[in-house]
Amino acid sequence: MVEDGSVMRGRVTVYSVPGCAHCTQAKATLSALGVPVCDVDVNKHSELRARLKELTGLSAVPQIFFNNLFVGNNEDLQNLDPEHLERLVLSVREDPVPLDAPPVPEDHGLHSDAEVDGAACALSEALRNLILKLYSDHLSEDGKRVDYKAMSRSPFFERYCDLAVHLQRVDLLSLSREEKLAFFINIYNALVIHGNLRLGFPKNIWQRYRFFNYVSYFIGGEVYTLQDIENGVLRGNRKGVAQLLKPFSRNDPRLQVALPDVEPLIHFALNCGAKGCPPIKTYTPQDIDSQLRAAAEAFLENDDSCVIDSAGREVKLSQIFKWYKADFGGTDEKLLNWVFDHMGASQKKRSLQALLSEGKVKVSYLPYDWSINSTD
């Protein structure tokens, strides 16, 4: 494992142009890895285009070099084998820039975290890539359990903590609905893990209340607790479970960030650190609604979350549907119709359809497993 914090002797060179989404993603990924990036805008330095074409045979951007080794474009970077990528990072840490490294303009500085400080999408992507790395290393295959002890020792976790500080400079008002959904879902799930690692796991109702109302990040100049993110932003400023007031008052500047209305599908993406929660995944703004719908389908297909008792004419659902019943229509009938509409094509859906067509159906709720989703 590459150790974080060591002195960098080499560099990664990225030839890019402004406004290029693939360039932004590549630089965010490299930033998340903690390597020094020399970002060369070929629009400003057109004299390098011909030389670059000679080196790689390509004119499209981005083009990425680890010292003198050409890796390829953004897709090539994202598809690198993790072990190979780690060796590349190690080579940049240990080996000085060779004489045959690709050319850069004189006095050209390195790209750093500061360049993504004010760009919510770029910072979100950098954090997401770090989260993906942590999850791939320390999350069970089904996404239900976390190896917290190993994660706490990971240099990538320390890198995540360092990068999370820059959330304070993010411009949240520039985000679209889709970007807000992906950004805040990913941040919520990461903040839960961050809080568990730094403060310990809440073990009772009172500790859980304090955890979700006090564990927070400073984002865009404002404090956002876990409750603020879930109920204030993602649920369109609705009261949370056992909450007397809405998270944001009428004059609260964070109200401008809140979604205009609740998005019920978030309940199948947010993970509070308990075994009864949906699996942990990461989300991207592109096609976010389809990603969330797929998460809902998977959740409903699991018998820990939804059981159809045809003989007893009863549907047993996760407590999540009870706590947030208003988000799913507010009545048993509307809730069951929502569940049916969001099930994948399966025998379970056909069983529910048969029950609904025959008349009244009882709704009950399954016990919720509040034990910690740790591998220990």
Automatic annotation (TrEMBL):
<dbReference type="Pfam" id="PF00462">
    <property type="entry name" value="Glutaredoxin"/>
</dbReference>
<dbReference type="InterPro" id="IPR002109">
    <property type="entry name" value="Glutaredoxin"/>
</dbReference>
<feature type="domain" description="Glutaredoxin">
    <location>
        <begin position="12"/>
        <end position="71"/>
    </location>
</feature>
<feature type="domain" description="DUF547">
    <location>
        <begin position="174"/>
        <end position="300"/>
    </location>
</feature>
<dbReference type="Pfam" id="PF04784">
    <property type="entry name" value="DUF547"/>
</dbReference>
<dbReference type="GO" id="GO:0009055">
    <property type="term" value="F:electron transfer activity"/>
</dbReference>
<dbReference type="InterPro" id="IPR051548">
    <property type="entry name" value="Grx-like_ET"/>
</dbReference>
<protein>
    <submittedName>
        <fullName>Uncharacterized protein zgc:152951 isoform X3</fullName>
    </submittedName>
</protein>
<dbReference type="InterPro" id="IPR014025">
    <property type="entry name" value="Glutaredoxin_subgr"/>
</dbReference>
<dbReference type="InterPro" id="IPR006869">
    <property type="entry name" value="DUF547"/>
</dbReference>
<dbReference type="GO" id="GO:0045454">
    <property type="term" value="P:cell redox homeostasis"/>
</dbReference>
<dbReference type="InterPro" id="IPR036249">
    <property type="entry name" value="Thioredoxin-like_sf"/>
</dbReference>
